[in-house]
Amino acid sequence: MCYMIITNNPEVERYVKRKKKQFIVSKRNGTVKEVVMETRRLLMEGWSLVCDPLGGRKERANPYLTVVVGRNGTLESITCDVLRVEQLLDIYYRNRSYLEGLSERQRMDYSAIDCSLTCGALDKL
């Protein structure tokens, strides 16, 4: 199966290169919103979520987001997957002012959390 990683986290991109994993990486320079919008576009084109992007996140705000999609979406999965990523957008909007005020140290911590969650999922694919 063909997998694509959509991320705004440079640590995830470095991890994939270091491990020489065969994934397509779509690097987004910006916010969680940009990652969600690109993910939603791909879902509408027939991709599907490979792992739950809310797994390990719950209602926690994080300035970094990594989503893994695969090329096997069905109409039923697309609908559920789009709703799932929309929940990420809701969390982002509710916490936007908090995210904008993070220090560089806090951003580094959040980057490490996102990378750890993602790497754990990628290692199982």
From TrEMBL:
InterPro entries according to UniProt: GrdX-like
Protein name as catalogued: GrdX family protein
Species this protein is from: Zhenpiania hominis
